[in-house]
Design goal:
mainly alpha; 10 helices; about 60% helix
Length: about 220
């Protein structure tokens, strides 16, 4: 897959990007923290280790930096802590734990910190390999579950559906966090911090070389 081409065409299609002061502060704070020795603020240390490996599986290093090199893992952890509502935090934890449990069972390992990229990659792939119809049915189950929880009811979500929810959400947040990073915003996407002439019907190829705007 041509990651650069995919990123250029993502635009705002994920629907995550809301430039709130909290979100902007998260983006700024991720610039200076050491990516190798970071301590998660929301996730446990073991979960943070798994997160770092997963974001690099989703966006590995090519002609542009990998996700971990622009600290997408730190961004996601901070976003979960500072922006997500309690129900969203609980859902992330629950679905991530079911994903990790599957990787542990398949690899025969006992501790999350011992999971390698080779252990995690097949679980991630299998959690995303569903047809559109299957994804639609899973989304219905997820919506029913979250609505029940919001109403204070007791609810359970199938393990397979939970893993899909985690993998799908993580993929979206990883791409979003990558696009929000300083390097990608300025070096990969079209960057113009001071807007110039407004061209409502211009050809994207002529205006930016086919790149989506980073701002």
């Amino acid at each position: 897959m041509d990651r650069r081409r995919v990123l250029k065409n993502m635009g705002m299609s994920l629907g995550y990007m809301v430039a709130t002061p909290t979100l902007l502060s998260i983006v700024q704070s991720c610039k200076s923290e050491p990516a190798i020795t970071w301590t998660p603020e929301f996730l446990s240390q073991n979960e943070g280790s798994v997160l770092s490996k997963l974001v690099d599986i989703i966006l590995p290093k090519t002609d542009t930096p990998s996700a971990i090199e622009v600290q997408v893992d730190i961004f996601i952890d901070k976003f979960a802590k500072d922006v997500m509502e309690t129900e969203q935090q609980d859902f992330l934890k629950m679905s991530m734990n079911k994903f990790i449990n599957k990787a542990l069972a398949d690899s025969g390992k006992e501790k999350a910190e011992d999971l390698t990229v080779e252990d995690l990659e097949p679980v991630l792939a299998s959690s995303l390999k569903y047809t559109k119809d299957q994804q639609t049915e899973m989304s219905k189950s997820i919506n029913s579950y979250t609505e029940a929880i919001a109403e204070g009811e007791t609810a359970e979500l199938d393990d397979e559906v939970s893993r899909f929810a985690f993998a799908n959400n993580l993929r979206g947040m990883t791409i979003w966090g990558y696009k929000a990073s300083e390097y990608v915003g300025e070096e990969v996407l079209a960057y113009l911090p001071v807007p110039g002439e407004y061209v409502p019907c211009g050809d994207l190829q002529e205006l930016t070389g086919g790149k989506a705007w980073s701002l």
